[in-house]
Structure prediction request, 78 residues.
Amino acid sequence: MDSLSTLALVEDETEVTIRALNGDARELEWLRAIGLFEGQRVRVLRRALFGGPLHIRVASGGEFAVDRSLAKSIQVES
Prediction:
């Protein structure tokens, strides 16, 4: 993955950089509150089966589950 993609498409154990957050104001506020913002490095640890959430780790060490539909609104690059 050399070009922009979405977090929802990132494979397990892959680290990427967030380039853009898209969504409504409430979603963007929550994402930034948990440490997801433009320029932040994140690693997808694992993806739940059947379209479930992604388990991710931000560079500061926090780990979160992000709904797959919300992950589709986060643009990333490797």
Q: What stands out?
A: The mean pLDDT is 92. The first strand starts at residue 5 and ends at 6.
